[in-house]
Each structure stands twice: as C-alpha cells, then as structure tokens.
Model the fold of this input.
Amino acid sequence: MQNHTSTDQLPGDAGHSPDLPLIKAALDASVSGIIITDNQLPDNPIIYCNESFERMTGYKRIEIIGHNCRFLQADDRQQPERLKIRRAVQEGEHVSVEIRNYKKNGDLFWNELFISPVQAADGRVTHFIGVQHDVTRRKQAEEDLYREKELREQKIKERTLQLNASKEYLDSIIQTVRESLVVLGPDLKVIGVNRHFLNTFKVTASETEDKSLYDLGNGQWNIPKLKELLENILPSNNPVLDFEVEHIFPHIGKKLMLLNAYRVELEGEYRDRILLAIEDITDRRAIEQRKDDFLSVASHELKTPLTTIKGYMQILERLLPKDADEKLLEVVGKSTKHIERLNTLIKELLDVSRIQTGNITLHRERFDFDEMVRETADTIQNVSPKHRLVISGSTGIDYEGDESQLSQVVSNLLSNAIKYSPDSANIEVNLARVSDYVKFSVTDFGVGISPDDQRKIFERFYRASDTQKNYPGMGIGLYICEQIVSHHGGNLWVDSEHGKGSTFNFTLPIKQKTNE
Done:
C-alpha cells in the first residue's frame, strides 16, 4: 500500500518534481477555492486545499485535510447535487454543480463546484481536483429575481382579473349609454359598436365589425375633413370635438350628427384605438332654431310699440307741470325707468339674434381705450351711487375696434359687478397693457361663482344656480360680451371663488386677426 502525506503531497512523483513548489504557490495564490482528493484511499479524502478554500469555508487546513468533501454540507445532505457528485466520482467523470455548503460558523453559502478526475498512465483515476467559487451573492440575486418574478406574475394575474372585471363593467356601461359609440382601430376599421349605434342606424353587428368607417352604409362617413381629423388623432392625441355631420342616412333620413373622437388608452393598452361618440342633435338644433326665430321676431315686433311708448313718456314728462303731484311724478319716473330696462332687454335679444344668424358686424375706428372705459364707468357710477368704481392702471393705447360694442361689454361687466355684490362698497377696475394685448379687469367682492357654473357662465341663456332666484336676468349679457370680445380676436374669462367675489377679465390683441 502506498503512503500519502496529509498536507504537502500533490499528485505526481512523491514530491520529487522541481516544479512542485511553483505549482503549490500558484494554487495558493488562486482566488478560487481548490481541493485535491485521493481516490485511492477509502472515502476519497481531501489531501490538499489552498488558502482561498480556507477563507471560503472558515475552516483551517488542519480541520480540512482527511475529510470527505461532504462535511461541508453538514446535515443538509439530501440535496440532489450530492447524487450527481457521487455518480461522477464512481464513474471517474467531470461534473459541475451548484450546492449548498455551510461555513464553520454555520452560515450558508452557495458553492459553484467543478470536479475533474486525474488519471494515471494506466487510465486509473487516482485523484480528483475540485475548483470552487462562492456564488452566494449571485444566487441571492437570482432568488430575489425569482421572487420578484413570482410576485410580478401574481400581480399580473390579479391585474388581469381586475381588467377583465373592469372590461365587463365598462362594456355594460357602454351598452347602456344613450349615445352611439364606435371603437376604431388604427386603420379606422370598426372594432365594435354599442347597441344604441345598431338601433339608431338600423344595422347589425356583422354589417359594421371589421369594416372601414368610410364603407359603412352608403358611405355616409366618407367625409374628407372628418378623415383628416381622425387620422391626426393617433399621432398627436388631439381629440375631435363637436364636429357636425349633416347627411341623409339610410333607413333614418336626413340627420345632423355631432361627433366627438378620442384616442383610447387604458393602463397603457389599446393606445392605437379611437372612441367615436355620435349624438343625434337634429331635434335639438331644430328647437334652438325655432327659439332663435321666435326671439328674433318677438324682439323686432316689440321694439316698434316700445319705441312709441318711450316717445309718449318723454312727451308726458315735458308736459307735466312743475307743481305736479309728487305721486304722479314718481309713477312717471318709475315707468320711464322700466321702459328703459325693457328697451335694454329687447336690444340684447336683437344682439343675440344677430350673433346667431352671423349678422354681427364691427365698425372699426381708432379710439382711446382708457377714455372709453372711464366714460362708461362714469355713466355706471352716476346710476349706482352706493358703489364706488376704483380705476387703476392704463393701457395708453388708441385701439382700433368697435367702440360702441366694447363699451357695451365694459358696461355689462361693471353692471354685473355692482349687481352681484350688493354689500360691497368698492368695485375695482384695472387697465393694463400685457405684451401685445390690452387687458381689462373688474373685481367685485360679492357672491362669487361656483366652479361648475364658471364652465358654463358664458353660454347663451345660462344663469348660475345661486343667482336665479335672487337676481333678475335672462342669462344673455355675458354671452353677448363673450361674442363681441371673440369677434375682436380677444378672450374673456372669469376667476372666482364661491362666496368671495369674482374677477372678469378680457384681453384684446393690439394687432389681431379678427373673427368677423
């Protein structure tokens, strides 16, 4: 039987090779843990380990030499990798495994182990060399990634269930909406429609799905301008708002449809789809037209007799003796005041009629903008002595526009400020030049306007909910103001906090393209 040393002897010719010290020095300098086992001894014991292996395991060399490698698995010896190692040793083959090992202090570390056989000249496997790396950090990272992946997959499953539930919920809502809805793909082919669309246009789902929007029916949607707008939605994400289509539709006749289209995006999905909402406004527009016609006719018919009455009242005022009864004078005065109020209302109705029919015209002349505001404010001040109009700032601009109409805007805004702040002593007016614009602002400290009402305050005949009962009016003054400012190329808006007053502002471009 051959004798083997436990610390210094390496596989070879009993240590007589002149290269042996160099080999040992190289092995000890390696950053990899290296061991050599003697396959000719019982239980294949370790006969060599380098310093890196000591550092890796926490054991000293004296505690390692003579042991079988399995001592590093401690009590954790049921790992399937152990079977791979045993089979490789028995067969004298190479093997590579990642196995759980334990340091001297009991800490777990993952060992990436490469085992290679060393053969004698006659082919017998005399030794095994094990090269080992501590891959605990990598395994921990892999474990973290695996757990994160599992957690992500679980979240995806949960999210998928939520999305499916949300989709069913949204589908149920869409199907009950009393408006025609169409979902289009990026090629503007119909992906789906709701029941209201099918019922309105008297078609079936099979006649719409996967069909181009422009091929539906008799080509009623094949409108160049609409096509241009829809095709610009996807790249720019700009919605199509309030686009009117008047057409003779098959089965339902001539209709006026209002279209709104948006690019759909839900949780990052479906971003190349378009939701098209179609509203039949034929009846509504007809009612509005009848109402406009009535207002136009009524205001014109009322203006003639009112002018006559106003004339008679002026004659009556001149004929009254100076010593006329005080009660009579009061009645005549009140009558004149109410006639003037009625005359103003009729004038506003005529203005609305002209705006609706597109007959509003601007008589442009240069005028001193600041002087116009001051003269208008003086007129309002004379009839409202309880309030003080405080004017600050100036524009210094000779503005080219319709002085009469802009004076009407200023008068209306000042009158409203007084009307809706009965308990406030001061009304603040500010004039300024802002960049290439003149700016007018009037601030009151009255009832204010709620956010919901602010969005609608400039609509025709709209009146804020809190003011309808307490303050008389028809809800057309601000509409007229907005239209006049708009026709001058300007912008009118309100800043308000409910219960704390309002500031109405408008700007007019000094050099502008007008909407006449």
Remarks:
- The two ends are 117 Å apart (CA to CA).
- Residues 1-8 have pLDDT under 50 and may be disordered.
